[in-house]
Specification:
The complex is a heterodimer. Chain A is an all-beta fold. Chain A is 0% helix and 50% strand. In chain A, strands 2, 4, 5, 6, 9, 10 and 11 form a seven-stranded mixed beta sheet that branches. A four-stranded antiparallel beta sheet of chain A has the order 1-3-8-7, with no helix packed on it. In chain A, strand 9 and strand 10 form a beta hairpin. The termini of chain A are far apart. Chain B is an all-beta fold. Chain B has a six-stranded mixed beta sheet with strand order 2-10-9-4-5-6, with no helix packed on it. In chain B, strands 1-3-8-7 form a four-stranded antiparallel beta sheet, with no helix packed on it. Classes of the chains: A mainly beta, B mainly beta. Chains A and B meet through strand 5 and strand 10 of A and strand 4 and strand 5 of B.
Chain lengths: 121, 107
């Protein structure tokens, strides 16, 4: 069965970086993309960007473009999201989700369990 | 960026009720519209993709319709597990924005 397992909770100081991993299983990793979505406590879902596991192509929301790096290691079936220059308002749950590229309309059909990132001095 | 709105922002209903949630996009997104449910403390889960296609394993009590800029999610015969927050998402053009969510709680 399809599973996305994310790395554990992180506590970071303002200005630091965090790298969240998302290990995929149960499907051919390179046939799909991975999107990253975050959710601050009590707030809605915010799309950060996505990466094609096939060719590494990325697209990120403008507000994150200068701070986020998304990568995919096909040998490990694992995607990574690196967010730099952390601020207190980056405290949130970060989710990875599988993007069904072949469907043509790209829904996120399977989700990781979420990784809580807390930014605090 | 394409703006996505939802209405209502919240609603109260009883088990067995039928409810409808509306999602509107700021421009034509054709059929690039998906619906997710998020239960408390859990990750979102895909219910419906491409406006009206039911995700595998999802109850037929869920249905979707619409085209262009206005879309609806209908839940027939609400069950206890359906009391959650529902989000729509457009994937016509990046950034793939989500609506602000509709909270469905027990009346």
């Amino acid at each position: 069965q399809v599973q996305l397992v994310q790395s554990g909770a992180e506590v970071k100081k303002p200005g630091a970086s965090v790298k969240v991993s998302c290990k995929a299983s149960g499907y051919i990793f390179r046939d799909y993309g991975i999107s990253w979505v975050r959710q601050a406590p009590g707030r809605g879902l915010e799309w950060m960007g996505w990466i094609s596991a096939k060719n590494g192509h990325t697209n990120s929301a403008q507000k994150f473009q200068d701070r986020v790096t998304m990568t995919a290691d096909t040998s490990k079936s694992t995607a990574y999201m690196d967010l730099r220059s952390l601020r207190s308002d980056d405290s949130a749950f970060y989710y990875c989700a599988r993007v069904a590229i072949a469907s043509g309309d790209w829904p996120s059909d399977y989700w990781g369990q979420g990784t809580l990132v807390t930014v605090s001095s | 960026d394409i703006q996505v709105t939802q209405s209502p922002s919240s609603l109260s209903a009883s088990v067995g009720d039928n409810i409808t949630i509306t999602c509107r996009a700021s421009q034509n997104i054709i059929n690039y519209l998906h619906w997710y449910r998020q239960k408390p403390g859990r990750a979102p889960e895909l219910l419906i993709f491409s406006v009206s296609s039911l995700q595998s394993g999802v109850s037929s009590r869920f249905s979707g319709s619409g085209y262009g800029t206005e879309f609806t999610l209908t839940i027939s015969g609400l069950q206890p597990a359906d009391f959650a927050i529902y989000y729509c998402q457009q994937t016509y053009s990046p950034p793939f924005t989500f609506g602000p969510g509709t909270k469905v709680d027990i009346e």
